[in-house]
Amino acid sequence: MKESILDYIGFTGELYCELSSRMTDREIADRELHISPSTLSKWKKANGIADYNYSFFEFSFDDWVSKMEEGLSEEEVAKEYGFQSFTTYIQYKKRKGIPLKYARVYQKKEII
């Protein structure tokens, strides 16, 4: 198997875990390693590291609307669900199809 640049510089799973607790993969690749995110992704796959850190609680669109109706800010919602990084929270919302901004039109309408 061809050695990757990350193996060559001695990057380890432990280093990745430490960085990923406070940064997204894009931030790790760009700021810390100066490589493309796809290079990091390939290294993770080769080393058996999952693509997403599920140290947070999953939530649905309805859960999100409920928190917004309670008056919580996006940052408060992110913390309540255990997201270490606001960027990771936004990425999660995008994957789930949850809008980036709350609007009153998302409130459930009661049928009389």
Structure notes:
The protein has helices spanning 5-9, 13-20, 25-33, 37-46, 61-69, 74-80, 86-96. With 112 residues, it is an all-alpha fold. Helix 3 crosses helix 4. The protein has two domains: 5-46; 61-106.
In brief:
The chain is an all-alpha fold and 112 residues long.
How are the SSEs ordered, and which strands pair?
Layout: H1 5-9, H2 13-20, H3 25-33, H4 37-46, H5 61-69, H6 74-80, H7 86-96
Task: Please supply descriptive tags for the structure shown above.
112 residues; mainly alpha; 2 domains; 7 helices; 53% helix; elongated
Q: What percent strand?
A: under 5%
How many extended strands?
Answer: 0
Mean pLDDT metric: 83
Largest sheet: none
Q: What is the helix/strand order?
A: HHHHHHH
First-to-last CA distance: 65 Å
Bulk shape: elongated
User: Could you tell me the radius of gyration in angstroms?
Assistant: 18 Å
Number of domains: 2
- Helix/strand-derived category reads mainly alpha
Low-pLDDT stretches:
none
Estimated helix fraction: 40-55%
How many alpha or pi helices?
Answer: 7
